[in-house]
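Interim report, section 4.2 (structural modelling).
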Amino acid sequence: MSHDREFFALLDAASQGRMSRRDVLKRAVAVGLSVPAISALLAACGSSADSTATTGASSSGGAATSASGGASTASSGSAATSTAGGATTGAASPVPQKGVKGGTINAVIIGEPPTLDLHWTTATIVGFVTWNMYEPLFAWDANYKLIPMLAESHEVSTDQLTHTIKLRQHVPFHNGDEMKSADVLASLKRWATKQGLGKALFDASEKVTAVDDYTIEFKMKNPYGVFESTLGYYYQGPAIYPKSVVDAAGDGQIKEFIGTGPYKFVERQPDRFIKFERFDDYAALPGEPNGYGGHKYAYADQLIFTPVSDEAARIAGLRSGDYHFLESISSDQYDTLKDDAVATADVLPPGGWDTFVLNWKSPLMSNQKIRQAFQMALNHEPIMLAAWGEGYYRLDPSIMQKETIWYSTAGKEHYSPNDPDGAKKLLDEAGYDGTAIRFMTTKEYLNQYNNAVVCKQQLEAAGFKVDLQVYDWATVVDRRSKPDVWDTFTTGISFRPEPTQLAIMQLCNWPGWWCSESSQEILDGLRSESDFDKRFKLMEQLQTNFYTEVPMIKIGDTKDIVARSKKLQGLSQQQQLGPQLWNAWLEK
Amino acid sequence: MTAYILRRLVLLLPVLLIVGVVVFILVHLTPGDPAAVMLGPEASNEQVQQLRDQLGLNDPIYVQFIDWVGGAIHLDFGNSIFLNMPVTTALWQRAQPTGLLTLYALIVSLLIGVPSGIFAAVRRNSLLDRGLMALSVSGAAMPSFYLAILLILLFAVTLHWLPSGGYVSITDNPVQHFKRMLMPAFSLGFANAALLARLIRSSMLDVLREDYIRTAYSKGLAQRRVITLHALRNALIPAITVVGSSLGALLGGAVITETVFTLPGMGQLVVQSVLRRDFPVIQGAVMVIAAIYVLANLLVDVLYIYIDPRVRYGNK
Amino acid sequence: MATSEVTQTEAIRSARRRQPGLFGGISPSSSFYWLRVLAENKAALFSGIFVLLVIIIALLAPLIVPHSPTTVDPVNRLKSPSSAYFFGTDTLGRDSFSRTIYGARISLLVGVSVMAASTILGAIIGLVSGYYNRLDTPIMRVMDGLMAFPAILLAIAIMASLGPKTINVIVALTVVYTPRMARLVRGMTLQIRDLPYVESARSIGLSDTLILGRYVLKNALSPVIVQATFTVAYAILAEASLSFLGAGVPPEIPTWGNMLQDGQRLITRAWWLSVFPGVALFLTVLTLTLFGDGLRDALDPRARER
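Predicted structure of the assembly:
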């Protein structure tokens, strides 16, 4: 079951003809896929002409064709329809194991979430906790394509300008009211005041109306290729709240936490715990779980989230049996858990990637040659090794992870050049005067700090002067918004199934200020275009720009490790967007 | 007596005002943006500014100060930015762990410190005395967080006898509560016990040299009686002062102990609030801790008069 | 640092116990007597030697260490103690032994700087406050205000606003310890101010500065020295506590507190990261305290009897 994701990644690559049979075979064997799975893959290679159809056929027992994949495959010219409930997978999903009902899952989070209002913040921890009680219109499936969740279907008119969303009926909120179009409209409108992508969606639409109780219509000004993926945004995503909750919130945070999800809110004591319990009237989709969508079992009676900021305490609590799930531990702890009687740890496929962001508005880094020298000086292997440890990272130039359909090696010659002499030459050409690079990092994210320490050493070897400034995270996020106080900072870019949703795609509106006209143009195309092949080419161009304009350095992909009690079963390995507890259960 | 206490209470006001001003200035000199912390790493600048306006963080400093002082007079410290609740509520939720931890640590330090001090004084220059005093000096030199780490290493990691951290309310499960508080209370109280032992010993030695003790001995009273009846009572008077100032030291030390053992108390709240730049909580928590501290000292002074009639304040 | 307030009281008490003037008329021959007493106190003697050793190690650190304390070597991360790495290596592959040796530098730098700054500032504030009645109340209220904070909290708050730099640690701890010294000196000044010989000095027209310097300060000197010795120990402990909480010296600088912070996280994985810097910290503070005790006993004959 841990091979699910590998399988789908390979399937995609194969079916789109971006990989030869031999490559597929090699990788499939390397990741240890089973023989039937491999033959399914090879079959996909043979029929790469019609990718959508192949994907559909090899998944599910002949259910409806999912034509809405990744908000991208909807072919232009004809109306596309996707239907909820039909998008179940068969071939690759494990035979559904029957879980055990009951019990309380104690999950540990690394800090107190700033809010339980998902519209409010981009903090990943809020997504992890609250997606157990809220639901979106569209969810990402096991293959990182979008499938309807609260939506019943989504139709696009032939002129690409009208999007009609039909809602599922008889879906109750936790307060007993039925979800209707008024609730959805109120939630989306409120979300759009908080979230940039949402704002862009509403800005690009001429009119948004509730046609009837179960239908919403978006009239767009221009074709909007990222329509569905916008509504499937995960962190700070468009969770559907009841209209009454939205109205009561006014400008502030919501005061009641009510959704349609499998768990409902019970109690929150800040810095102590957050408690959910199963929502017995939950309107589950038929079929089986599929990625972040599909059926949701909600085996456990209760979910309790406990914030524990100290890692040693988290591990100790897990080993003593107090906790069942730790969302993320450092690789150094993996060894201690390997042979534990009570606990175990899973290394997940790469999620996000680490980066050094360069400040295009600082006198130093506005010089492209200096940015390129920075890039050229680095050898990424020791940086990742120090930060993550052997076996917990992947060196790869692609902005979008290998596991997605967006994988590309464009610009790879500029990835980890490890050429300090070349960097020196560039510095001379740029007339670098020895001004120290103001390099901000934080110890609250230890990996980032370690990245920075090794990077500093390499930069100095290439002739840079480096002033490493270690702040707490609160100071870093404050300072990074002030263009004149820094040159570089460390951060992690979290996983997105859709390239336009990456943090860096805010280009000129995000710290670092990647204000490049050519990149902006490509991005605009990427947003409006809905044909995948065209979009993929645009994305490759953008990645090439990424490596020549150097807005930041991609260091490498990072693998998260989650630790869990051996009693906790049914946890999906698909966690790039965050773990899902709604299908997990506790063995007696 | 009442007049004295009242006068002392009035004198506390300027002290607390100074505390308030210092905290407010420090907090607002601190770089870092609570709005950016709340909105997460990928938020846009626009979003952050919008929230700053809503939270009133863009108001002029003096406006914020006047607002805050106005509230603080009525014991209203405003609303926590991060926790979205009144600061007083947040503090109240954290009061039990900190209060009990401080209490237990005080008990630990009294249970260890007082008998050790007495035995060391009575058996002056004996092996016991030397051993106890060596232990006491070591205890004072041992950073409480290091002792905590060593205890965790031994009792939690190696022997698996005690949980390494976390808090269980005493009303929920008293057994688990005490199991979890044992190591924190000991690591926090030990340094204090060491100092207390030294003080008790030296004040005991002072007392044993007094005339009335010699008289008592010369009356033929047994040593045990002399010590419990006469010497101890007088030797404990200076110890009371120490208990008062210990309270402050323990409250401060609780910040570190709570961090190591992940106890959700006021100390941990302060540390976390600093990281979150939750200004109202930092201000409120420090004010409350400082107020407890000065009130404890006042209480000690009052007790002192009560116990030792030789001391007379009031007309200095 | 939790210990500071208590011993502070002790220092004041021992200062109060002493009769004023006891040291005023000290004869030249007996002014060396305390040195002999100190030398006869074995614990204090060995402690003094140990402290001296730490100072020498700190000064000669670059000559002693087998590896650079800051060079990262990710391939050799988290190695247990061996003949190549006496104290093992940390997560970045840096040599713990070298870092522990270098840690002595920061500890002593912070300890001695805080001691010097807080003693000088505290002495001035205490003298002025004790000598000039009019200034006494306002100054002491401010000092009371500063002392109303638990020391670690005040230090954390100052560090948060100033930012993580070594010099800021010194500033923060100086702010914390100055009021304690000021209070001690003020107490001494109050006792000495109205003594006949100070009054007579005033009556013959000697300037206040001269009187404060020559008579008052000189008489307050021995408790000040004792308190100063303890301040070194407290400041070292406090620096370690701050760094341990992540609010002290910048993390890439090797200090015992920083090392302990790293070590605590990995306590189940790499015990050596917590144990060695902790022992170094403990021994240094212990010997400084013992030396301070010895000094007090030597300078204060009455304390010696105990």
